[in-house]
Design brief:
It is built from 12 helices and no strands. The chain has one domain: Cytochrome c-like domain (Cytochrome Bc1 Complex, Chain D, domain 2, Orthogonal Bundle). With 232 residues, the chain is mainly alpha-helical. The protein is globular. It binds heme C (HEC) (2 copies). The site of one heme C has 26 residues, from α9, α10 and α11. It comes from Zhongshania arctica. This is Cytochrome c.
Length: 232
Amino acid sequence: MKVAIYILLLVSALIISAAYFVNGKVVSTSAPLAVIPESPWVIEGESGTLGAELYASCASCHMADGSGRSDGDVPRLAGQSQKVLVHKLQKLRDGSSYLPVMLPFARALSADEVLEVSRYIAGLSTITAATLVQTVPAADSLAATKYQEYCSACHGAQGQGNDALLAPKLCGQHSAYLLRRMSETRQNLRGDADSGMAAILNIIEKADQIEIAQWLEAIQCTATGLSAGSNT
Ligand code: HEC
Ligand code: HEC
């Protein structure tokens, strides 16, 4: 099993490094290759109604539709990849990610319940009534270009995330939350920041970070018709 995971990670790393060149140019000599983590948590099991029941205890803060809060205090969870959610919740539970507000809720779940609530959340639609009224920006805007240059290698061309790297889906996320997390990552406030990402954030001007965050929020994961939880 372990060997299979290593092979999978190696193949993903090769594909990602190849992507730098297929685009016709080397993105930047300082563009980092991801430090690929191995997630010890394997996802399996049947889907049922348990996830929905468990999510009821999350809805007061994350909202019934998983849309979070636009002020950036509470993240949108709807449509996030199940694997990323499981990884985040397990890190909270075992103390390798420091986030006091979430700790009691993560600890209240058993390992099986983490799988089920994450499966439920991943299946919630990324598109909500509030996001539908926004205008989807052009794919060739300046912010889009900067996103492709600095972030897409790990988070996917449309911000859809990358399970192999445990890089979260970012499209449709509240820009205030994205910006806060970017600044927290630079300072490694939770103790689990991705070092490759922290390095790249250090070379991006604040104004560009704001534009990238606003672009990510506005593309709503619809630019290529991505469905909730998609990773390709
Ligand atoms: C009392 C309010 C509250 C409840 C209830 C709550 N959360 Fe949260 N959750 C938060 C806040 C606030 C954050 C963001 C904290 C921050 O970024 O500083 C968060 C963050 C998260 C994150 C992102 C963590 C990360 O590492 O990025 C996940 C995943 C999450 N919650 C899942 C859940 C699940 C699943 C439940 C129910 C079992 C739940 N939450 C219940 C308030 C809550
Ligand atoms: C080298 C790979 C890599 C690069 C490049 C990278 N990231 Fe990340 N990013 C990650 C990983 C892995 C995580 C998950 C670690 C964590 O939860 O802190 C992450 C987490 C995040 C988060 C937190 C999301 C959440 O739901 O918790 C945000 C926001 C983010 N990245 C934005 C960006 C932006 C914007 C860029 C480009 C300017 C970028 N990242 C570049 C790998 C990368």
